[in-house]
Amino acid sequence: MEKGGNVNAELEELFGEPVKTVLKKQAKRLQEDRVAGKLGVTGGGLITVATSARLPLPQNTFHGAK
To answer: pTM (2 decimals)?
Structure first.
């Protein structure tokens, strides 16, 4: 696998449909937690649930120029 490649595509190629299903489920849960304001950032820069984080992630309200 080359640097900057699509890891998800590589995993799907190796393991098939179950990987795609798990990745979709994980993305959906992350999005739900983001919308609910449950995500934060640790001191090491990892995005995690806000209870384990040092700083909560702020809501993204910048939608660009209209």
So the answer is: 0.59
